[in-house]
Design goal:
- The chain is of the alpha/beta class and 297 residues long.
- 47% of the residues lie in helices and 18% in strands.
- The chain is globular, with a radius of gyration of 18 Å.
- The two termini are 27 Å apart.
- Bound molecules: pseudouridine-5'-monophosphate (PSU) and manganese (II) ion.
């Protein structure tokens, strides 16, 4: 079912460090044509840090782990590419469609391949007003059920972060702040919520990851939350979020379209600031994931 790129196949065979990268961020999270440029740069960052990048996507029904540059170009330029979560995988592959994979689907596929490191921007979680909409990302259940070490910059700030943290606690998904005791806020350094645990080196994180099997708590993800260095202006962030949420409501945006709609709203209204931060966090998270992968050897 899975096709590996030559580089990823070799790395897995040699048991050398591999970092999974998701594709929804490329196709539904960043504007074209910048998305392709960023995707290529992120792969280079992983390579420079001593690991092999494994971008995951489905092309014409084939699940790929590791994309060649022409395949990356194809998905980045495809305006009609689907957004696949775990439940979509068998359908999309059988029907020979193309799709980018979310955090949930990427984690699932990476785990199938025995890849334990994964870098993304911000996790999905509980949406605002979820008590009415019931909109909760499938990322949460995937994190509860998939042994993957995921480096991110917290949950997306478009979400109800408080509720997302409560759900992660219920689902027994551990969170480590990287050099911080604050849960990062995606576009913002600090979401306003404290974290109980932190780690300050890739080596310390690798040690915790390994220790999980000793106490049999290795069935879930381990979240490493890495805050952005230079955050978006808070007032600008809050204003765009307020306007975007109202726009999404009047436009009747629901389901899997909500997150891409709001991210696009940010990118179109922040004069490049949300894009700058989104790119910065993806790069920093990819670098840290590669360092942890190297430390795990
Ligand atoms: N992080 C980003 N940009 C993104 C995403 C994460 O910086 O576009 C994607 C991930 O694929 C994540 C998805 O799984 O957004 C969440 O979508 P939803 O809320 O529909 O579950
Ligand atoms: Mn949703």
């Amino acid at each position: 079912m899975i096709k590996y790129s030559a580089a990823v196949a070799r790395a897995l065979k040699d048991k050398s460090p591999v970092v999974a990268l998701e594709s929804t961020i490329i196709t539904h999270g960043l504007p074209r044509p910048k998305n392709l440029e960023v995707a290529l740069e992120v792969e280079q960052i992983v390579t420079d840090a001593g690991a092999t990048p494994a971008t995951i996507a489905i092309i014409d029904g084939q699940i790929h782990i590791g994309l060649e540059p022409d395949q990356l170009t194809q998905i980045a330029n495809d305006e009609n590419i689907l957004k696949a979560s775990i439940r979509d995988l068998a359908i999309i592959s059988t029907q020979k469609k193309s799709a980018a994979t979310t955090v949930a689907a990427t984690s699932h596929i990476a785990n199938l391949a025995g890849i334990s490191l994964f870098a993304t921007g911000g996790l999905g979680g509980v949406h605002r007003e979820a008590w009415q909409s019931w909109d909760e990302s499938a990322d949460l259940l995937a994190l509860a059920n998939t042994p993957i070490l995921i480096v991110c910059s917290g949950a997306k700030s478009i979400l109800d972060v408080s509720a997302t943290l409560e759900r992660l606690e219920t689902l027994s998904v551990p969170i480590l702040g990287y050099k911080t005791n604050k849960f990062p806020g995606f576009y913002l350094t600090d979401s306003g919520f404290d974290l109980e645990h932190r780690a300050d080196t890739p080596q310390d994180i690798a040690q915790i990851w390994k220790a999980r099997s000793d106490v049999e708590t290795n069935n879930s993800a381990l979240i490493v939350a890495n805050p952005v260095g230079n955050q978006m202006d808070k007032a600008l962030h809050d204003q765009i979020l307020f306007d975007g949420l109202a726009k999404a409501k009047t436009a009747g945006i629901i389901g899997k379209a909500v997150t891409p709609f709001l991210l696009e709203y940010f990118h179109s209204n922040s004069k490049g600031e949300s894009l700058r931060v989104n790119v910065e966090i993806i790069k920093a998270n990819a670098a840290l994931a590669a360092q942890i992968a190297v430390a795990l050897r």
